[in-house]
Amino acid sequence: MLREGAGCKRANVSSAEYSPGRDLYDAPHLGRNSANFAALSPLRFLSRTAAIYPDKTAVIHDATRLTYAQFYQRCRQFADALHRRGIARGDTVSVIAPNVPALLEAHYGVPMAGAVLNALNYRLDARSIAFILDHSQAKLLIADREFTPIVRAALEELTAPLPLVEIDDEVGGASLGGTEYEAFLAEGDPAASWSGPQDEWEPIALNYTSGTTGNPKGVVYRHRGAFLNAIGNAISFGLDRDSVYLWTLPMFHCNGWTYPWAVTAVAGTHICLRRVDPAAIFQAIADHRVTHLCGAPIVLNMLVHAPDTAKRRFDHVVEVATGGAAPPSAVIEAMERMGFRVTHLYGLTESYGPSTVCAWQEEWAGLALPERAALMARQGVNYLTLDRQRVVDPQTMTDVPADGSTLGELVLRSNTVMKGYFKNPAATEAAF
Question: Model's pTM, two decimal places?
Answer without folding.
Answer: 0.92
